[in-house]
């Protein structure tokens, strides 16, 4: 349902400060992610901004009076959801980001000793338009036979993994994410050239 002109003006005024912070935050997020010398602390701290914008609903109040219904773009993971039901899979991480100057769309691990057949229907460039709830509820990690949503990842990093707070994992998704942090780590190996 469209917003009446009166409500639109009221909502614009009520969310003016949050909208200005959003613009600054998006610039900061893009600058941080574009840096070649990122450190985990920088990424971890972004979780507080992501939590405020998505989980705590700032986007839900900022967007409608300015652009209408909010639609976010997310990678299409459906081929991996189907693959996990049909064959052994130890791990899946939805990405769609640049890591060490390499575009990473997904990290997939098969079960040791059993062949994993990469889904032929997977299209790395296919994306989905999602509502904010659809975006937050999209399954983005698979580990130990369980899926974790984007909302759970954002909350875990912000609330447990020192993004905003440091606390022990409480629920099943937090314990799973804590285990996954011990299971996988991306590092860049640099070759050294010795001249003699």
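^ structure tokens above, recovered residues below v
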């Amino acid at each position: 349902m469209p917003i009446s002109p009166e409500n639109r003006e009221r909502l614009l005024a009520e969310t003016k400060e949050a909208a200005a912070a959003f613009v600054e935050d998006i610039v900061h997020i893009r600058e941080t992610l574009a840096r070649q010398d990122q450190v985990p602390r920088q990424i971890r701290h972004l979780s507080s901004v992501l939590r405020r914008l998505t989980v705590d609903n700032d986007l839900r109040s900022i967007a409608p009076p300015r652009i209408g219904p909010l639609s976010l773009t997310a990678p299409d993971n459906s081929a991996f959801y189907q693959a996990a039901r049909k064959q052994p899979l130890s791990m899946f991480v939805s990405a769609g980001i640049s890591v060490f100057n390499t575009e990473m769309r997904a990290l997939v691990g098969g079960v040791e000793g059993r062949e994993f057949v990469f889904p032929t229907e997977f299209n790395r460039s296919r994306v989905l338009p999602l509502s904010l709830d659809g975006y937050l509820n999209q399954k983005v990690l698979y580990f130990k036979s369980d899926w974790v949503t984007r909302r759970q990842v954002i909350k875990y990093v912000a609330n447990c993994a020192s993004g905003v707070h440091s606390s022990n994992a409480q629920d099943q998704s937090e314990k799973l994410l804590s285990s996954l942090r011990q299971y996988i780590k991306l590092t860049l190996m640099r070759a050294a050239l010795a001249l003699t």
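Residues 189-196 have pLDDT under 50 and may be disordered.
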